[in-house]
Amino acid sequence: MPLCTEVQDMDPCLLKGFMSRKNATMKCIKLKSNGFRRCHREVPPESFFTSCIHDLCTCQEDSKCLCSILEAYARECAKSGVKVAWRSSNFCDFECDSSKGLEFDECGSPCPRTCANIQTSGHNLKCLKPCVPSCQCPSGKVLHNGKCIFPSSCPHIEMIPVL
């Protein structure tokens, strides 16, 4: 009966060549840049940097992959209490409809305040999910029919008791 030999994990950058690793490294260095510096003490970037290079060497669409990696690092930073504004209008942009009053929040609530839930005491929606990069209403406004409005403008919503 033949025995299995140990399988080695192949580095995709070695398979693709020196230029592939160099290009990936040049893109992933963003994790160690000033834009993320405030987070480095809380979440060391080294493991994300190594994973980033590996992932970019295997990825077909580097820009989407790079944005996903940077987003994952920013999410870890936010979990540690450090919000990082790393996106720009020409880099991993996140479009929000400003005509509806929405603005981008790197670490927004996955359970936004709405006219329907504004009466919930302390906004306790049992929302235990981590923050998410998303379009949110600015502080002092709530979402209603896809637009941000002042809570005083909410239509009267009759609360039906749950039995």
UniProtKB/TrEMBL annotation:
Domain VWF/SSPO/Zonadhesin-like cysteine-rich per the UniProt entry, residue ranges: 21-93
Swiss-Prot/TrEMBL GO biological process terms: positive regulation of BMP signaling pathway
Main location: secreted
Domain of life the protein comes from: Eukaryota
Alphabetized UniProt keyword annotations: Secreted, Signal
SMART domains with a match to the protein in the record: C8
CDD domains: TIL
Cellular localization per UniProt: Secreted
Cellular component GO terms held in the UniProt record: extracellular region
Pfam families: C8, TIL
Protein name: VWF/SSPO/Zonadhesin-like cysteine-rich domain-containing protein
Species name: Lymnaea stagnalis
